[in-house]
Predict the 3D structure of the following.
Amino acid sequence: MILHVPYFIAAWIFLWGLYGIVTSKNLVHQVICVAVLQTSTYVLLLSVGYRAGGTAPVFADIPVGTPVVDPLVQALMLTDIVVEATVAALLLSMVVKANELANTVDPDELRILTG
Amino acid sequence: MTSVIPLPVAIPLIVAAFIALTGHWVGRRFSDALAIATSGVTLWATVVILRGVWLQPVTYWFGNWWPRNNHVALGICFTIDGIGAVIAVLVASLTLAGLIFAWRLFEDTENHFQPLMLIFMAAMCGFSYTGDLFNLFVFFELMSVAAFALCGLKTLEPAPLQGAYNFAIVNTVGAFMIVLGIGLLYARTGALNFAQIGQSLGSHADALVLLASLLISVGFMGKAAIVPFHFWLADAHAVAPSPVCVLFSGVMVELGIYAVARVYWTIFHGALTVHIGALREIFLIAAALTAVVGGFMCYAEHHLKRLLAFSTISHTGLMLAGLGLFAPKALGGFVLYALSHGVIKGGLFLCAGIVLHRLRKIGEDHLHGRGKGMWPTAALFLLGAWGLSGCYPFGTLLGESMISESASSLHQGWLNYLFMFVEFITAAAVLRVTFRIFFGWGEPAPTDEASSVEERGETKQEDETPIVMLVPAAALILTGVAFLMVPGLRSVAEASATRFTDQGTYVQTVLENHTPPSPKLMPSESLSSSLLRSSIAGILALLLAVGTVFRNRLGRALNFTRRLELGSPSLRQLHSGHPGDYVAWLSAGAAVLGGSFFWFLR
């Protein structure tokens, strides 16, 4: 059971991130909520790769046969971080521009496109 | 042929980096020419690949990491089959048309239009070629980020920023659902290769497999703009530059459905095949909802690009039906429909770009009668409406006939009426616009909030339509006719789809380097019943468009057209332009879909 805790934590973070995005009143806050939602994927990937008693998968200075955690999910996570950094930077730059043009970061006031 | 396989991804990425670095010094025209040449070369490469794989899929292992021991895939591969290859050809052709159209677009040189278009193209080619689940996600994100940036290219106005922002938020949430799904599948199987995952999952379906399939499907269906994940699409199309809309509507949305199909047939088919009846019901309901909501919203729009965007949503519903029948023939129909719809809709978006270029407005109410004299554009609009109605001689007819034949054999004959409805209402909307803008018939369209969103012209105003704008638009729409001229196209599509849906053969091809015999080409049935249906839809569309335009002169019986044209206020209010609302709909849709997955597939 204790091994399942990280999965519940991932779901918990995901749902809070979703709640934050839906209810946000500030675009900067909303982008950060997207980042929060994304941390759930880190937690999930790390717990998928976890092995009890495993060490870091650096094979240079550990004896052969030492249990290590799965390096592949770490590579996936790294890719994931890069992707998120790009998206967050792009979103935040849009928010900055929106603030310059419309003088607001409240999504309720920024409704130009409707219907 | 094998050495050509990496080129559609590699060449555009390298040239994009080169243009981004040197564009400032070498000047606008040189960058343009280089980008056009690159997309031309990519088009050539994708055609070469298509010729090599159209009946016999090819697996290309990067760094020669083919599966050596016990057929375990450690490397990353492209597994290219006829369907993936032909979609890549569509990607390259639409990019080429868009880049040529953009020759006269954008006064300022300080934007990154050409590199972003090339990255977008490379990512979409990679997306349709890849045989690796995580690679699929990486290409998905690459194309998404390029698309977000392209959508918000005109950063001097608030509307494009809002459209791009909504687009980015909704799609990013979807992308993270995909990552979660991939993580769960990796946890279960320890593999990322499609074939390997499918082999390891076998026929065992439990809650984890269902959850993974749900998360991945929702993520990709968000990209495919299936109701209720579709809200971002109209906003993004309303503000993106016209050549970008061509790629969005023409192929990016279809790639969402392609990805669901790919993942289902290579990974989940073995596990979920006992539930295929229930899955069919779920997907067909989603398809019908998408087609109907998209159709009514399409007729209610007066912003030209939003109208076309909702028409895309409606047609996506039909394409989802092609996938959702879970039959090879219907899948082949989906591909033919996606190809011909892609070129026709792409051409229509370029025509909308011409209207914006010449008349500086995009709302139907502001443009009434101002397009008189632009007869080549008017003719293209009429041809486009004709193509959307699926009438002879457009390729949409072929796709439609395959999907509806498959539907009839699976006792889902009601889909025929769905097809008629979509073809009728989307064609009528485009005809209505043409009659009002170019012929000046009837009274001006009613004004609505959406149509008055100001769009700054993308160019300096001119009194002539530049030939570089007209030629790509005409070429795309006429390609829609060319599909019908290819003999035996339906048989080839069906054979490719049969191979696409054969999980066992797929595993053998990828992991054991086994070459199965090429599938036999079956003769296809006559087109007569589809021909009849789409002709009725086309005639009804013409009547509705004429009735709407002349309703004041023709009498009170036609007052229903006014209601149809204004749309349902509550439905329109749902499209609120608020990113939080859109994500709430995404979550609600995912919850309903998840609930039905767990209810029906217990």
About this structure: The mean pLDDT of chain A is 88. Chain A has three helices and no strands. The CA atoms of residues 76 and 107 of chain A lie 33 Å apart.
